Amino acid sequence: MALIRAVRGMKDILPPESERWQWVETTAREVFRLYGYRELRLPLLERTELFARSIGTDTDIVAKEMYTFIDRHGDSVTLRPEATAQVVRAFLENRLEKGAGVKKYFLMGPMFRYERPQKGRYRQFYQINCEALGSDAPELDAEVILMLWEILGRLKLSNLRLLVNSLGCPECQEDFKAKLKLFLFSREGWCPDCLRRREVNPLRVLDCKSQTCRELLKTAPVLKDSLCEACSRHYSRVLTLLEQFGIDFEEQPRLVRGLDYYTRTAFEVTAAALGAQDAVAGGGRYNGLIRELGGPDLPGFGFAIGEDRLLEVLPEAEGRSADQSVFLAALGRSALERCLTLVQELRGAGLAAEMDFDGRSLKAQMSLADRLGARWVAILGDRELAAGEIVVRDMKSGSQESIRIMELKSALKNLAAAEEGN
Ligand code: HAM
To answer: Is domain 17-169+228-313 classified as CATH 2.60.40.2150?
Structure first.
């Protein structure tokens, strides 16, 4: 019978790679803790309307990429293509806006976009999201970017570029859209999508992937020239703070991001090694979103790391756990019985331990231990059992010695601790 395969654009994450994912997530969690962010776990399905209203109906995400279907009750639901909108939804629904201070959340998990799959682009991909709600201070923008930098630094990622721009407030955007529209109508050769976009949502043209449009856009006006005084001040303060904290950035006057909700600061982190899909993370400020979704007029700022892409540029050696597991090789029925208790005792002492129940030969058990990556093998035959002894073999050096069974636990703990200290 033909094997059933995974859905196109969706992949399995297997060990040992899954251990690197765990390491990335643990590292991010630790940094989030230091900065006061707490975890939200939200549903994968939301009402379609949530995304249409927040991300924007002319964006690629909403227009072409959502996994939307009608459920059995006749409601239109969508697998989340991103998390910011649903964080705001949950924030409002659960009345989290109450009380003073910035509300800080992180969220990790899969997102779904029906894009053409290629390297670094999947239909189910994973994001590490961070959202800070309730302050318009430029210090918050800088701090969140600093925190992202801390995460990426702890993960030993290098050769990253931080691209920054300001998209201004709705007034700046009105002024800019008027200038941009003039420019867009003064040139020929736009792709069919952009011919439509220049009428309804000219900012989206700046995000077009078509080569000809990109070429034409090289002389387009830039947002920075349309910023009002307050937005201009906000932007310079963010840049000054980034400089002050020693973060290298590049101003990217044409960066608009692929979602409509951004205001003021917008940024992306790219890694050249990724090729065409080079954004590892992206984010920015969304001051109108909470109100747009029916809440109070509260500002917000956040980012999402694309975990799949991050893992693709993570140095090979990072995040691999040093294996310190023990394999108990039992030879004979009574040795097996003894090992059943021993293996539990080792686990109880915090050591990863396994054994074979199938009565294989010593040779077969040794090769099994090798395949499992055991650091030590403890061999127990009937003769050793009668003498109260067990042989411990170091799988790295190949050396082995006989010790008292009673001392196995403490001996292995000492060996593991000594190795950890190295
Ligand atoms: P985004 O730029 O659409 O922003 O996605 C963030 C990151 O998710 C991208 O930089 C990329 O690394 C990854 N990503 C996006 N699409 C794919 C894909 N098809 N396959 C693999 N990775 C992908 C947002 O989603 C915003 N919600 C970020 C944000 C949070 N802004 C404010 N707060």
So the answer is: no
